[in-house]
Design a protein that fits this description.
The structure is a homodimer.
Chain A: H1 6-18, H2 24-33, H3 35-43, H4 53-65, H5 68-77, E1 80-83, E2 105-108, H6 113-118, E3 120-125, H7 131-146, E4 150-153, H8 159-169, E5 174-181, H9 191-200, E6 202-207, H10 215-228, E7 231-235, H11 242-252, E8 256-260, H12 267-277, E9 281-282, H13 286-293, H14 316-324, E10 330-332, H15 333-340, H16 344-357, E11 360-363, E12 366-369, H17 371-374
Parallel strand pairs in A: 3-4, 3-7, 4-5, 5-6, 7-8, 8-9
Antiparallel strand pairs in A: 1-2, 2-6, 10-12, 11-12
Helix pairs in contact in A: 1-3, 1-4, 1-5, 2-3, 7-8, 7-13, 8-9, 10-11, 14-15, 14-16, 15-16
């Protein structure tokens, strides 16, 4: 399950309580010395070269209150886990962030993060979006999910929420990336939506349980969305909006940056149009998005190349669901769930995971083994 | 006034009655033998190699009815003229059409075609456009005209009409390019608009007086719009629409192709979005259009380089209007018209001509000599 020793994992969990997301100085230390040593140096009193004394002082205060065992237990009690670089579930594309790579990710939900993120697209945009933005985001996300792509967003108001809802409505795969602990629904009025994401999809964040978002944490959260996905689609954004920062970040990481145009008379499309006049690619529907993201990173894409992991390396639940599919023909999720004796959401999560790994295909509302999986 | 001899000019006028616009075979003959000889060979009975016998027969029937002296007199009676390649008023950029270059252009209106076309942009799009398309086309055209650019379009319903109206409302320069004779308003219900274009702007066409448009003449008309202008802006177009053909033509001629995005939920923007996903450049307002077209063809652009023709080469009316401007400061068009004793529309046409030639500048509603003209 893990390539990371227990002490390193525990130290990384502790560091998520202490270190602000995206701290490059700590990232460099981690790379040079490992997490356990970095944690010990934050415990001590020696000078830490390359970091402002005020920040060192802040981190040392937090160190005193860090309790990784309690945090790990709390998230485990919610059915979650802490995923570290090197873990089977770790999405290797996050390593592109270099010294800004997350220390680890707190994850809730049944599916495995890595295969889901392999075929994922971010759909982001204005919080105060228009009806047009809501409609476009929901439709785009539903169609992406319908075609086997995972929709990643930030669970915020407006475009984010519409994107998650669209993917959920299509019984598709969706990942909510929070700027808070995965037990802290933010915004609070999205608690219901975030619970549904957790049930049917995945909830992910860098911050330990109980932590709240701040302005800089939102910005740093956006780098995770950008790095996790093959590309970012901006649906409505004013000039100088946060979504454009995510897009620029995605671009810097070599990901595709796409934008959905809108009326030139709408200020909510002005930022998108600015993007499209620069490096952004114009997309009008899911098929166009997939045509673009499907082209890049074919090293990541299992599609048409058969499974990316051997059948006997599948998790227990995924293997059970795979065995529940008919050898010939297709079955709907209810039939498969009854067959394997698992809940609907759990079955669906595993089916999407198997889809991402190349074992099954979705045909509208039904599921079928790929020719490779049938052999 | 003219570099073309009377016989050649008369032959070209006759050929506009006989030859379909854009006939490349005739274009090649013209290049090789001159208009008078081509006309004579259409009069005779000898075989014409390289042209289908049926077409030759059709042209010979038309030859029998051609009466260039009557046509030239009819258009002159309407205050118009026949402009030939090589004339002072001939827009040299039309030569880019090669053997598809118009035989000549029938022109109505007070201004000189060449300087107006030097700084011109085509604004085209769907006939059955939406309210959004109407609003965007009118605003874009008004702002282009306000900034001294000539708005060229086809006088059709929808985007074309809105573009002309926007330019006229801004007391700006506009050119209507017809697929019929310049005395045949098409569509008929645009007779009022076309009359206003003729009064305040320029009306242009390849076809002799009395001729009506056909499907192929519309398509060939579009090549004139594409070639005449520095760039073409498409405002609303369905997939596979005629405006996209104009745009493709413009692109093939090395002109800029631009598109105004709209809601992805509108079929009337789908063609524009397709264009923008290819070679088209996204623009949202006049400033962005000018930024693009202002860059190219600086050899054509007199702006900031002083007048492109010497003062004593100006036409009589243009020279009179130029003399009517104050040596210092600005004047409005009414003051200048009174000063020089000309009508408002005529004065305005000449001011736009002088603007295109680099002698005057527009400052909102007032006109001022350029520093070069002041010397």
């Amino acid at each position: 399950m893990s390539a990371t020793g227990w002490e390193e994992r525990r130290a990384r969990a502790a560091l998520t309580r202490i270190v602000e997301p995206g701290d490059e100085t700590v990232g460099r230390w981690l790379r040079e010395r490992g997490a356990a040593r970095v944690l010990r140096s934050l415990a001590g009193q020696e000078e830490l070269p390359g970091m402002a004394p005020r920040r060192v002082a802040g981190y040392r205060l937090r160190y005193a209150r860090a309790d990784p065992d309690t945090d790990l237990a709390a998230v485990a009690a919610l059915g979650g886990r802490f995923v570290c670089p090197g873990d089977v579930e770790w999405p290797a594309q996050l390593n592109d962030l270099g010294d800004q790579r997350p220390l680890g990710l707190w994850v809730r939900g049944r599916a495995s993060l890595r295969p889901w993120a392999l075929r994922s697209v971010a759909v982001v945009g204005a919080r105060a979006c228009s009806d047009y933005g809501t409609r476009v985001a929901a439709t785009l996300a539903a169609d992406l999910a319908e075609r086997g792509w995972t929709v990643v967003s930030g669970a915020a108001f407006g475009v984010d929420g519409a994107a998650h809802r669209g993917a959920l409505a299509a019984t598709g795969a969706t990942i909510g990336v929070l700027a808070s602990g995965v037990d802290v629904p933010y915004p609070p009025s999205h608690a219901g939506l975030i619970a549904r994401i957790t049930e049917q999809g995945l909830l992910v964040g860098e911050l330990p349980p109980g932590d709240h978002p701040t302005r800089s944490r939102f910005i740093m959260r956006n780098r995770v969305i950008a790095a996790l996905t093959r590309g970012t689609v901006v649906v409505e954004a004013k000039l100088r909006s946060g979504s454009l920062i995510t897009a620029r970040r995605a671009r810097a990481l070599g990901r595709l940056v796409m934008g959905v145009p809108g009326p030139v008379t709408s200020a909510l499309s002005a930022g998108v149009h600015e993007l499209l006049r620069g490096e952004g690619l114009l997309v009008t529907d899911a098929a166009e998005v997939i045509e673009l993201v499907g082209r890049v990173g074919d090293d990541l894409a299992p599609e048409r190349q058969g499974p990316v992991v051997a059948r006997d390396l599948l998790g227990q639940e995924a293997a059970r669901v795979l065995d529940g599919l008919p050898a010939q023909g297709s079955a709907d999720v209810e039939t498969i769930a009854v067959q394997v004796g698992m809940g609907l959401d759990e079955t669906l999560s595993r089916l999407h995971e198997l889809r991402a790994l190349g074992f099954v295909e979705r045909e509208s509302d039904r599921w079928v083994l790929t020719s490779v999986a049938r052999r």
